[in-house]
């Protein structure tokens, strides 16, 4: 039986933000989104044919959707656009689903797909020659519930260590190696090692969680309750915050990293030659090539796993989006999966969409599809997705936890608090 979300749950996911969006008329439409032979397809603007400012994306979508409609001959696609505010969009969709008003197909932030398990339809009978094993392990983890496929992830991304190949022969793998290399190159650059440490999600998922995970830490328990301040998790968090503090105390990281709320905030330092290493995402390759010129960037910069305490275990955060199908009619569900295969999920569709959007494919075989464009960094990103990538926990408490941990990192970097004090404040904030 489907349950209605409480107002408290709705607001925790972002209902307050949604309320403002709805007043402006940008929140998504409700209901299935179409008649008997129409599939309502809901996406945020940058993934839709509606309100999308990227003409290359629009051209691709219109071309492939038109071709699919012509070949299908029975169903047409009705594009429904939701809020560009991801938190608001997901809050609205969860509210729609709880009231049995969700569109036939909807875009879902991959890591919170488990929150929709009770509402989305199982897709096992419609996958055809798509094998669940094609998806990387982190993607399979959120796509399945009790062995049943509940969504289809169609994009992803990953975080890595960028390092200057012209200054560093071998990238550091451990904390000790990072400190040593950072100190060795300090005379060559303004700041040896940069990472996001401001009030933004990048601070949690790019800077903190990879360290915390390699130390065996878990943010929440099986019920989604915060446990990062308890037992072994507490020790892992203290050591992670201590590592960040030591980077500053050793002089390889400046306190100004508290100004970096996004990975791309570091692009200026990287392009101007002011840093030797930084933590960032795969999407920065294309941006930095554009800024620096492709030849100079590829000559100077390499990528490697994010250093860990031991140098033997590594972790990184993967992101990305999934499609959930809510249509109750079996024929419409089958047609919806066929549509998604053609445009986003099948070999050719995923390759082309990842090309036009600059994403990484969450299905490993797509890396071998001729249509998928690769470069010097593709193999490294692929290795990270296969071996090191993890998802943020889907717990409702995660947003509050992440915000509290961002504050903790900022306090430690600025010298405002010790790791122990910062962690104590974070635990108290989410309790």
UniProtKB/TrEMBL annotation:
Q: What is this protein called?
A: Sugar ABC transporter substrate-binding protein
Q: What protein family is recorded?
A: Belongs to the bacterial solute-binding protein 1 family.
Q: Which PROSITE patterns match?
A: PROKAR_LIPOPROTEIN
Keyword line: Signal, Transport
What Gene3D superfamilies does the annotation carry? Answer: Periplasmic binding protein-like II (3.40.190.10)
**InterPro entries in the record:** Bact_solute-bd_prot1, SBP
- Name of one Pfam family that matches: SBP_bac_8
């Amino acid at each position: 039986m489907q349950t209605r979300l409480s107002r408290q749950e709705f607001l925790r996911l972002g209902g307050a933000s949604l309320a403002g969006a709805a007043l402006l008329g940008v929140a998504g439409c409700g209901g299935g989104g179409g008649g008997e032979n129409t599939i309502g397809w809901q996406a945020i603007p940058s993934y839709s044919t509606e309100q999308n400012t990227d003409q290359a994306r629009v051209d691709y979508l219109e071309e492939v959707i038109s071709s699919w409609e012509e070949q299908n001959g029975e169903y047409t696609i009705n594009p429904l656009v939701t809020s560009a505010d991801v938190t608001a969009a997901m809050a609205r969709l969860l509210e729609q689903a709880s009231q049995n008003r969700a569109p036939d197909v909807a875009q879902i932030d991959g890591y919170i797909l488990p929150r929709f398990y009770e509402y989305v339809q199982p897709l096992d009978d419609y996958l055809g020659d798509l094998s669940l094993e094609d998806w990387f392990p982190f993607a399979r983890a959120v796509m399945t519930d009790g062995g049943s496929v509940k969504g289809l992830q169609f994009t992803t991304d990953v975080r890595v260590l960028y390092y200057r190949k012209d200054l560093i022969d071998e990238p550091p793998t451990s904390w000790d190696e990072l400190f040593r290399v950072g100190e060795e190159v300090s005379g060559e650059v303004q700041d040896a090692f940069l990472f996001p440490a401001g009030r933004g999600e990048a601070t949690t998922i790019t800077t903190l969680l990879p360290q915390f995970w390699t130390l065996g830490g878990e943010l929440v328990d099986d019920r989604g309750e915060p446990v990062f301040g308890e037992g072994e998790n507490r020790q892992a968090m203290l050591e992670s915050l201590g590592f960040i503090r030591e980077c500053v105390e050793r002089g390889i990281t400046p306190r100004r990293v508290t100004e970096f709320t996004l990975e791309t905030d570091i692009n200026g330092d990287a392009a101007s030659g002011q840093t030797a290493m930084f933590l960032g995402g795969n999407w920065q390759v294309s941006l930095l090539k554009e800024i620096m010129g492709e030849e100079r960037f590829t000559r100077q910069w390499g990528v490697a796993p994010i250093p860990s305490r031991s140098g033997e275990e590594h972790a990184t955060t993967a992101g990305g989006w999934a499609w959930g199908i809510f249509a109750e009619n079996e024929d419409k569900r089958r047609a919806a999966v066929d549509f998604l295969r053609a445009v986003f999920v099948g070999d050719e569709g995923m390759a082309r969409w990842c090309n036009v959007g600059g994403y990484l494919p969450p299905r490993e075989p797509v890396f071998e599809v001729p249509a998928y464009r690769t470069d010097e960094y593709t193999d490294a990103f692929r290795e990270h997705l296969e071996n090191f990538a993890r998802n943020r926990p889907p717990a409702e408490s995660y947003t509050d936890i992440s915000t509290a941990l961002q504050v903790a990192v900022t306090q430690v970097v600025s010298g405002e608090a010790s790791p122990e004090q910062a962690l104590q404040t974070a635990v108290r904030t989410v309790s």
